Design the sequence.
């Protein structure tokens, strides 16, 4: 199932639903409309509440998707909606850094790291920086080194406290994609000063997320996925998640030792190798106004962003 958060054209009301794909056009099945039609007056209206409602809500939504033809009169065209980040209000969105071997080599070459961590590390991605699929993201004036970072994100589906590695996937509702846009101008200054806030990753719009949460039952093997990034149709990177140092089992066990991880929280698992900053011609590769960036879990989902000024 492909779970999305959206608004209809001309409306500011946030809704959730499922994206249904066929050969000609994507259709959106709005859960609120199905719930109203069938008399489910208490069905959750936002993604975090939906996930926290547990298996019953998830199975109900799956049954609606399986019988979507019975609700064809409710379908919305994908052209009649605006995609929002699948979860707009996560309590915790933790981004694990330095988690791909190929990316570590880039960071060492460019002096962006001083040492290799011995356990998972993370920084916080602020909700205020998130944007949705097909969003336009403004490159701030004076910023010239805007970099792309496609990342696999795990969305938590139930409360985890003291989770064990062997149980990790039991807590995962699904996956989505983050383009962890990074202002290298600011990041290099913050590294030099010892700051850990990462302003260069939390500028408004610098967190394209989505387009959907792909439920975990549709992912054959989370440790064998190709993450790709293309700019204006030209592929810039293609790296397999097998290259990750810390798997979701390591990450969830580590961060849930003392702090409860709630349904609707998210973990981004780090940038693969191949970002602009790690290449000799980096100045030619940094994102410019007009660039269209597509980050993908190959064969599964694609997140598209346009850079503007």
Sequence:
């Amino acid at each position: 199932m492909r779970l999305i958060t959206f608004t209809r054209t001309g409306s500011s009301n946030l809704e959730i639903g499922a994206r249904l794909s066929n050969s000609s056009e994507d259709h959106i099945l709005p859960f609120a409309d199905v719930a109203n039609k069938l008399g489910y007056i208490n069905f959750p209206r936002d993604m975090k509440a939906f996930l926290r409602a547990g298996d019953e809500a998830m199975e109900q939504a799956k049954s609606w998707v399986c019988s979507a033809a019975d609700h064809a009169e409710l379908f919305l065209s994908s052209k009649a909606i605006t995609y929002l980040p699948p979860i707009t209000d996560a309590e915790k969105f933790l981004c694990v850094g330095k988690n791909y071997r190929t990316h570590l080599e880039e960071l060492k070459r460019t002096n962006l790291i001083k040492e290799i961590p011995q356990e998972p590390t993370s920084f916080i991605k602020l909700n205020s920086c998130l944007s949705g699929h097909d969003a336009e993201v403004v490159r701030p004036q004076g910023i010239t080194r805007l970099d792309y970072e496609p990342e696999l994100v795990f969305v938590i589906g139930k409360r985890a406290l003291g989770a064990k590695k062997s149980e990790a996937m039991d807590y995962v509702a699904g996956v989505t994609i983050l383009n962890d846009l990074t202002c290298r101008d600011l990041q290099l200054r913050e590294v030099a000063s010892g700051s850990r806030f990462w302003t260069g990753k939390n500028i408004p719009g610098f967190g394209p997320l989505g387009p959907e949460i792909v439920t975990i039952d549709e992912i054959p093997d989370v440790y064998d996925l190709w993450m790709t990034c293309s700019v204006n149709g030209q592929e810039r990177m293609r790296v397999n998640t097998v290259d990750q140092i810390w798997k979701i089992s390591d990450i969830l066990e580590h961060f849930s030792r003392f702090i409860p991880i709630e349904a609707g929280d998210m973990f981004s698992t780090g940038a693969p190798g191949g970002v602009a900053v790690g290449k000799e011609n980096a100045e030619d590769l940094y994102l410019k106004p007009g660039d269209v960036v597509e980050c993908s879990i190959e064969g599964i989902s694609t997140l598209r962003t346009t850079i503007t000024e």
Summary: The chain has a mean pLDDT of 92. Residues 65 and 230 are 31 Å apart (CA to CA). The longest helix spans residues 55-66. The helical segments are 31-38, 47-52, 55-66, 101-109, 184-193, 248-255, 282-285.
